[in-house]
Amino acid sequence: MREPLLRILGGLRRRPVLEVTLACLAVLLLAQTLMGALSLAALDRLIADTTADRVEVVARRVAGNIDNGLRLGKPLAQYFGMDALLRDGTHGSDDLAGIAVLLPDGSTVASQGDVAGAATLARALFRHDGAATPHDIAARPSGALLSSGGGRVLLAVPLASADPAKSNAGALVVSAVRDAAAAHALMWRSLAVLVAVTALVGVALAAAFKFLVPLTTLAAGGRARFVVPLVALLLAQGVYAVYTVQTFREGWLRVTRENVAVLARGLQTDLDRIIGYGIAVDKLRGVEAPFQRLAATFPAIREIDLTDAGGHLLNRADSRGPLPLAGGNVGSDTGVAARGNAVADDLTLVLPLTGRRDTAQAPVQGATQGATQGNLVLRLSADVLGAGVRSRMIDAITVVAVALVAAMEMLLLLSLLMNRAFAARGVAPDGTRVGPDDASDIGRIARPIMFGFLFAWAMPLSFLPLYARTLPEGWIDLPPNVLLALPISVEMGCGLLTALLAGRLTDRRGWQFPVLSGLGVTFLGMLACAGAGSLPIFAGARGLVGLGYGLTWMGLQGFIVTRSSPQYRGRNMTTVIAGLFAGHLTGAAVGAMLMEQLGFRLVFGISAFMLLMPVLGVLALMRPYMGKQKVAEKAAGSPAIATTPVATGAAVALPSRAQAAPSTRSGFTRTARLVFTRDFGLLLLGSVIPFSIAQVGLLSFALPLYLEHAGVAASSIGRVLMIYGLCVIYVGPLMGRLVDRSNAKKTWIVLGGVVGSAGMIGLYFGGGLAAATLAVFLLAVASCFSGASQSPYMLGLPRVQDYGAAGATSVMRAADKLGQMAGPLMVGALFGSMGMNTSLAIAGGVYLVATLLFLFFAPGRGVQRTSGA
């Protein structure tokens, strides 16, 4: 087995064009697979949502009929004719499996068909204020509760009480079967388009490398090596994205029209019953009241008209009440049509009124039976439909953006591997091989590792509180909300501890020890999360994950600090942070998708398995740097080595390691002295801690509550949070290069503080989605400035060089964790007494004051020491 594989690899090395082509095709296939998985999962959610919309329409229609009787004083427990109402209300709905009316305690009043689980859903609808919704039940924006599983959808809506002292009298629960055939057809069609697009673009990519890109261009490291696969990737994902967006749009429009038709058929049946008794259409009175109730039930209905057989307008109403007849004809210049039947189009539904009665007992009189005597005309709102279409298109674009972020990370990894494959390895005079990468861009080596690690770590993040809520509390006796936050708090606290430890480990044993140890500890923590049987055990498991996270994150920062020369540390640090946010963004999205299909525990297991990827990345990409310290130490005075960028970066860190030994004897005292210095201490107090308070206080705690209070949908909240990640991923590295060219690192730190605080202070003067979006964007820009300048500024301080670069970095990250822990507590404490806008503005004001303290009292520039100092 080994010999054929070696023979194949040897053949590929002799054919570099084929090797590059296959590598690019592999990245394209992986990117398209992720794109397809996310898109299919989103389509599945769209199908489930549209099914729930249709079921809710039926439920609201039947509930409206029951509410009419309750308003007349009928008691729900002795509601005469309930069975007939349920039977008539669901007539013609083929996908309904059953319907039931229940009291708040879950006892059944009447039912038709199979409604298994109705009692649980009804009791959840009447849970006491502040109680959490069960994890397998979702609350819809309308207030209805939804439960799905086993190919069925169960939905509950409240029934209004005639007693003003009681909000609701009971619940109506409807069970429906999902249209599996239609769902599978849509999925297979989408999958076929994905495969076809990928195959065509793959063939075009291979042809481009074969006939359009010269081999000399590939070997010389030309832009074609990155641009050609990038264009292919954007083309493939763009074409499939257009198809996905169009599918979302058409699906939502079709279902909306179907839902309006389902609602209108009930009104059509009622009018047909009246006409069947011999009452002419033009003699109907008071029909505006049911028209108004129907329009108020479904916002997509702009107006409902009643016309006679000739098209003359008889009655019209919208959700606010009756409308004037304005000329008497439907469709004239005043909004009504000319004589003649109304024509159905995308915004108009026309339902004929014939007098046929399926349930009436009296015979239809006269010779008019079956002839059209009038029309029920429903006019849809273009504004509401347009807003719905835009929302679904944004949902699809969000999926595309997440997939594209992951695809770009794969492409950057491919570019790194190709550069290594074609580049000549540098060799020192003593025969030792120098690192194969440019030291000015050393962050590109750690970026794939960080991306893979955060991808695996972030997979369970979207459902941690939900999973915690399903576990027994055990011996812990705390308020419910505190219990749900406990696993996350324990994880942050453990991350703070290992952030302090990792710097010392990096100084003593090299960056690889905390990185590999952290990956191993995180692996064990994820497995423990999957097997946790109670909340205390789960909190302990998340503590293990936090320990591993702190070790790995600080170890990778230690790699940047010790392997990068001072003038390039800013860009390299922002490159690694960009990989962190890219992994966080895509991992959380994939984890949420897998949770819906596989459940909580399997996602933890998959997350543990995915941690093998960064381990392989460390061994494959970073092995040349594992033993580099000793080589640099040995040759610190060698001119040949000193002129090598990587060696220079290693040599810069040598005084730190040389002076690390005495720090072990009085570590706490030296750390305290460092923290209370005017330069390093003010960096922590004036920039690192206040930024972390603002970042986590706004993004992780306040923003979801703030936007929810403003009436913003959960999907829009997620997209606002994405702005931060996308800005850090793609703007951060550019800012890093800009900061590296400047000697005034302090200026960029101050600029970041002013920009970030301005966004939060601005929330005091204007609220809503626009103000929150601007605040998040400005905080992201501040993160780019601060992330690129804090580390270079800190590492240039003389006391930091005396203390140790890696150790000081770990102290700075520990302060960062401290701010992250304090942020939610500070903002949450202010929320109760000051209000949301004022609380966030105060947090921004604290950030601004701290920045000004740093501006006026911190030194402007540190003194760089070299190995010969």
Rg over C-alpha atoms, rounded to the nearest angstrom: 33 Å
Strand content: 5-15%
Shape: elongated
| Oligomer classification | single chain
Helical fraction equals 55-70%
Largest sheet: 6 strands, antiparallel
Supply the number of structural domains: 4
Secondary-structure content class: alpha+beta
Give the strand order, joined by hyphens, for the main sheet.
Answer: 2-1-6-5-4-3
Number of helices: 31
- Straight-line N-to-C gap: 55 Å
Integer average pLDDT: 75
The tally of strands reads 11
The stretches of 5 or more residues where confidence is low (pLDDT under 50) are: 328-340, 359-369, 628-665, 863-869
Give me a quick take on this structure.
It is built from 31 helices and eleven strands. The chain has 869 residues and is of the alpha+beta class. The strands form two sheets. A six-stranded antiparallel beta sheet has the order 2-1-6-5-4-3, sandwiched between helices. A five-stranded antiparallel beta sheet has the order 9-8-7-11-10.
